[in-house]
Amino acid sequence: MASKKIILTGDRPTGPLHLGHYVGSLKARVELQNKYDAFVIIADLQALTDNAENPEKVRKNVLEVALDYLAVGIDPKISTIFIQSLIPELSELTMYFLNLVTLSRLERNPTVKDEMKQKGFGGNVPAGFLAYPVSQAADITAFKADLVPVGEDQLPMIEQTAEIVRKFNKIYKPILVEPKALVSKTAKLPGIDGKMKMGKSLGNAIYLSDSPEAVKEKVMKMYTDPKHIHAENPGHVEGNTVFTYLDAFDNDKKAIEELKKQYRQGGLGDVEIKKRLIKVLEEFLTPIRKRRAEFAKNPKAVMKMLEEGSQKAKIAASKTLAEVRAAMKLDYF
Ligand code: TRP
User: Fold this and answer.
1) Which residues, at least 6 apart from 181, have a Cβ–Cβ distance to it below 8 Å?
2) Is the CB of 148 inside a 6 Å radius of any atom of ligand 1?
3) 20 to 30 A Cα–Cα from 123, which one of 15, 234, 293, 307?
4) Residue 69: φ, ψ to 5°
5) 2 pLDDT tier (thresholds 50, 70, 90)
6) What is the pLDDT of residues 167-176, one digit of tens each?
């Protein structure tokens, strides 16, 4: 029997997950988990690379992220959900990989560059932060993942992983798998302020765990077309956050096309399209919120699920690491 292809993806536990995570990756994980051997990593060590002084925050969000996973339908019976730090093999592999990348290559990674600016490290970038793409490469390759379902911002990570794999396979032995990114077809979701990146620190995200009131308030504040002041004026649909969200979440594509036409012609107010978006988001979020609340009643059971997932993940990673050590002549006894 041909074995199933392997997918691996995950998140940093630095805060609850938002609609951008859903569109960029969670949706694909739920769809793909039946077809592939799926691993989902809660990357607590990666979270610590820029939160060294906030271990409590990372610890707390491990549970929050796990609840978000369960709420959207990642099924721990078929997907292996695990905690990064419980698999020391991943840190070991990171150490080996660090010899296969240069400092200048790390400094050129566009995602890391953006994040460094955003986080305002100035001259004080933690070495662990700069090197987190290497640790991510270890996460992916320890499981011999073929596919990595991620948002667009993670493409440089997969590229860097592929480079490391090629180098490793050439120098030592061709045992590692070069992964491919699987980027969602839906356009990237902007923040409610229209900025391209949605994030906790930017204060512009709608979370999967937001209350109906919070969702309403955020949508009503959403960036539209700043020149569309009166309903009767023609408005822009492109770059209009409300329409971008409607495209991602409203299943009635025909109605949306009609609304876009009206908006462009003039005669359709922002409040009206926002009301529609609130309704659409509520339909999407209500069952998620309900499931989340159900799982949240029993955090012990959720942690137990993570413990079991981590045990399973450790077995898979240990196998690869035994091969890696042998290939690197580190299998002494
Ligand atoms: N860097 C990812 C994020 O920002 C999290 C992550 C850690 C990850 N390890 C991974 C994603 C491995 C995909 C594969 O959310």
Assistant:
1) 147, 148, 149, 150, 154, 155, 158
2) yes
3) 15
4) -60, -50
5) low
6) 999 999 999 9
pLDDT of residue 122: 84
Tell me how far apart the alpha carbons of residues 226 and 183 are, in angstroms, rounded to a whole number.
30
Rounded to two decimals, the pTM is: 0.94
* Separation CA 63–CA 43 (nearest Å): 12
Contact criterion met (CB below 8 Å) for 312 and 80: yes
Give backbone dihedrals phi and psi of 209, rounded to 5 degrees, phi first.
-100, 10
**CA 306 / ligand 1 centre spacing (Å):** 17
Taking the C-alpha atoms of 57, 60, 61 and 63 in order, what is their torsion angle to the nearest 10 degrees?
Answer: 170
What is the residue whose two structure tokens read 């925050």?
Answer: 57
- Cα 15 to ligand 1 centroid, rounded to whole Å: 14
pLDDT of residue 202: 80
| Token digits of residue 182 | 């699987």
C-alpha to C-alpha distance for 128 and 323, rounded to whole angstroms? 26
Distances (CA, A) of 101 to 53, 55, 110, 165: 27, 28, 15, 11
CB of 136 within 6 A of ligand 1: the answer is yes
Judged on CB neighbours under 10 Å (0-12, 13-18, 19+), 281 is: buried
